[in-house]
Amino acid sequence: MTSLPAPTAKKLGLVIDLDVCVGCHACVVNCKEWNTGGYGAALSDQEPYGADVSGAWLNRVHSFEVVPEGGEIVGEAGDARIVHFPKSCLHCEDAPCVTVCPTGASYKRAEDGIVLVDEEKCIGCGLCAWSCPYGAREMDLAAGVMKKCTLCIDRIYNETMEEVDRQPACVRTCPANARHFGDLGDPSSTVSIMVAERGGIDLMPEQGTRPVNKYLPPRPRKPLAASAGQMARGEDTSGATGFFAWLDGMLDRI
Predict the structure, then answer these.
(1) How far apart are alpha carbons 160 and 118 in whole angstroms?
(2) Structure confidence by residue, pLDDT tens digits, 212-223
């Protein structure tokens, strides 16, 4: 079995804002694209254009209907709401996927806390996938080895890239700015401040894995009816003259 390093001072990870994620899957697609040509072996697909499609994805987005408080169905006691929930490896401090690995293929880096898989040592037994409470590991059927999020380690330390690009592909591509990357072991880092201010939470804390990645919960929503009277009204153009008066008249005919 593989041992975990002593608690690391540097804890690189992700902060995901569930309030603004729109479920566009841009992070999923860019993750697949980058990791198919980057670190490790390519991520394979089986029957990509057939009826029974399968493949290895390091990041997935699940969407859930939220039942309003007091209601049994969406919209019964308030307005409907969908929450999009991205999920990948959370790089846990007490990672069971590491300690269960019989070959040492799964390991946690002492310098930054990133959990990786040495594909040369992996025998594809699947024990790490069974031990992960988050379902964050996937077997690549073509390669016969386990795959997982690497936090794009080949990007974040790549000094040949522009500094703005030295972050995980999923973070770099998110159009809604819902994903953030940084050192969660540093209380003064941007991601740590974000977690403190928004009440960032662990996923399934009862598992005792102490995930590094954090989620920012969705903010409370006001019912649409409560803000209906605050909607912007059309401007009064009755005093317009010259060109603007003509333009106003033409727009009224449309």
Answers:
(1) 24
(2) 999 999 887 665
